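Two quick folds needed for the group meeting slides. Do the first one here.
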Amino acid sequence: ALCYPARLRPTVEPLDLAKLGALHFQTPDYDRYPCLKLAKEAGAAAGTYPTVMAAADEIAVEAFLQERIAFTDIPIIVEQVMHNHDSTSHPELVAIDAADIWAREAAVAALDALLRANK
């Protein structure tokens, strides 16, 4: 989709599951990976929650990359924004865009509050 109608040449070999042999799965450790839990909750809640989660995560990750917050602060910001969101079920594009804008603003506010609290 990024280069339509042209096609990019693959840079890695195709995955051959038969050659791989076996896959082993474990129950996710949501304490160790809290954002995975938030993503699962957003997906289950549907509506505009996935948009809100992704937008808040982008703001929080950018703050981490700028070394303004700790890595462990990312899920705190995302969870707070998701908790304060009133989702729209079966949203049209306008509602999705509005949720994205709201979540980014809410994440900036949550980030600012966290930074003030940590001073």
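Then this one, please, same format:
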Amino acid sequence: METPACTVRVEAGQPLADALAAGGVVCLGPGVHVGPLMLTHSVTLRGEPGAVLDGRGGGAVVSVADDDVVVRIESLTLRGGAGDSGGGVSLTAYSEITLVDCVIANNRSKSPGGGGGGGGAYASRGSLRLQGVTLYDNRAAIGSDLLVTGVAEATVSGGHLGGDIAAREGAVLALERVVVDGALDARGTSTRAPTVKVVGPTPAGGVHNDPTLPARIELSP
């Protein structure tokens, strides 16, 4: 399949607003680009070698809160995010976010109550896909690298997660041949239970399934 050409190219330091408004494939040149970005329509963000999108502590580096939005992020480093739910990536709508060959690092979730989940990535609705993504040095009270909750669906294939993963409520999570240094923590509610399928290595930090409100967990080699 042929890779779509860039619709517009943005140099580091140039404003992103006009480029994002045009949609299509937005290519980010090497260097630091200023976030955070709230994406309201479908777009592809493609990083050239050395491209970084920095949230500068102003929210999730990339967030989608509108329905029917399809976002694809390729070969980009997302850092410096500090959102209430999700520091690097936040998906709270019936939309789709796919990250391919990206790095999500040095982000945190900072909810006002002192908790927060999904320091690296968070999804409560829609579909989140991480393909060959590396996550490390993210912080949150629940799921330092990833929290999938509500009615979200998430698939993590390949890549390396240095922290913890959490599944809550009625979420669906699939881990496919991914290395996880931290733990997988799962818990449902009195009416819903998350579904988790792990194919390949079990998270090195163990699998913790709440004994009172358990998830449905399937482990296979």
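Slide caption for protein two: The CA atoms of residues 63 and 90 lie 5 Å apart.
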